[in-house]
Task: structure prediction
Amino acid sequence: MDRRGFLRRVAAGGLGMAAAGRMARAAEGATGAAPGGDRAPGGDRPQGGDRPQGGDRPQGGDRPQGGDRPPNVLFILTDDLGWGDLGCYGNRIVKTPCIDRLASEGLRFTNFYVNAPVCSPTRAGFTSGLFPSRLGIHGHFATHELNAKRGMPDSMDPGVPTVADMFQAAGYATGHIGKWHMGTVPAQEYGFAESRTFAGGGPFAWEGRENFWRHSSEYIVDDAIQFLETHRDEPFYLNLWTFHPHAPLDPSEEHMAPYARFNDKRLSGRFTTPFGVFYGTVTEMDRHLGRLLDKLDELGLRDNTIVVFSSDNGPEDIHLRETAHSGVGSPGPFRGRKRSLYEGGVRTPFIIRWPGKTPAGQVDGTTVLSGVDFLSSVSRLAGVPVPGDLRTDGEDLSRALLGEPTARTKPLFWEFRSRVLGDPINRNPMMAVREGDWKLLMNPDRSRCELYNVPADPMEVDNVAGAHAERVDRLAGMLLDWHAGLPESPIEPEAGVNTYPWPK
Ligand SMILES: [Ca+2]
Result:
């Protein structure tokens, strides 16, 4: 089912779901007016194509109030924060007291996977519930020329139903604040009625804000607080996607101070160690996220708000030129960093807090949860209907989000068509699949076949492919079938290659 069909069905009065009554009320409220977007950058909605226009869009209507008010959702997504970059995930250096507190009040997952090792595809996976390569998004969105060269579109297909569509159709106020990186089409075209973003090449929503990159977490949290205050009396779904700790990094002296011991005293200037710069940035981001969580308390929204926290990919690699300061994040105990399909590139923190519903301070170390599950699982948690014929690559793992470890039934697939930078040990084969405890990495020509039992070998050092021929054959077949069904696009010659110039 495409997005236009979804919106038409909503406008026609329901989806035949359990909560169809609420959905229908929301649809009745549709007035044909263009979506809100009072702080929308860019203004004009794109015309043409087969995108649904204003008339198709449900606009809220009489939302349930008081006791039966559905829960809000606040989804905090950080950028390039590694699995091991939080105190609550084992980091003994960096100070993240606010996120640690969120974790102590909620549930942490240790087997959470994003669906790609870089920004754009991961974000598309969370938003659509689809493996991003199925949408042609296998790398980060860049200029039109670079996208075209890699066989990528310039935006995620706005014809695909999104998690924001589900919530908006159910009468929620929807918003997206912060990094977007899903292309040049405005966020409103994906169901986010209000947005303030920087798309990269598109409108810059914080024009005139002094020293934006240094203060981005402060600014976007200010915007998010304004959103909460505006929508405190109605159900809302808000994405707050940070720019930190992706480069460029420019933390304040105050936040670098706890890490002065890393300074190289022979150097002068503000930055005399990448560690202080990176850790200071994470701490500064943590402080502002703390302000946001405090605001939920202050507005009395804490108990009725589902807060989700995650990161879009593993930590940056220090070998990359202009991002060196951000290249000292930690993948925790795992092999791989950003751009790698080894665990450290695609396994990130995932915390959920819903007071009284999610168990406090617990860790789920068994459920294999993923970005493509987000749409189905969070919608179910909030009681927001998802059409029965909406096909996603994820599944409803809401029981796990409520504290009941759950075995997933669908495999997870990844690909990365570009080369992996940095240390040879992080250079993975081009594709990967995880099913049950097993993960197979392989190139499309079946070279570099690596099989790991992930719970037994989380660092992926013991390739047991040779001892499991049957399992390798089956997983390889699944992976090749999946890959053959993806839109065609070029593969960089160095993708999936791990050549080290051995002395001869
Ligand atoms: Ca990223």
The domain at 62-410 is CATH 3.40.720.10 (Alkaline Phosphatase, subunit A).
